[in-house]
Amino acid sequence: MKLAKLTAYKITPSHIMQLIAVMAFPASLVILGGGEKLNISLGHLIDLPSFYITVTASLILAIIFKLGGNISIGKTLLATGIPLGLMSSYIGVILIVSNMSDPSSFGAASAVMLLTALYGGLISALGFAVSYNSVKNEIKP
User: Fold this and answer.
1) What are the Cα distances from residue 73, in Å, to 79, 131, 135?
2) Is the pLDDT of residue 77 over 80?
């Protein structure tokens, strides 16, 4: 099997603006004070097991596909972010169903369920922002 040639990726100012636009809403909930009204802090949006399940798996797949099949990292993140987030959210559903007798465990299991879906959407949006060509209005090959 022949390994693909690694090339440098050029990040343009339009990529940076797209990344800022993608991350603006979740960040505005915490930074601009909307989080205080909704009782949301930065700690509520970070769950390490959910992060590892979704984000790490997406990045590992993107690296494997880039090295093995020369598929761009952005396209892989775009294609795998939401499905991995939704499949990972079933882990939270299983945790809820398996602990029906203990209602105190619903909060942590719900956090895993909802945050994996959120992380999957953000990974997919990040993949779109990296692979979208704003000059031609199409996704780069």
Assistant:
1) 10, 8, 20
2) yes
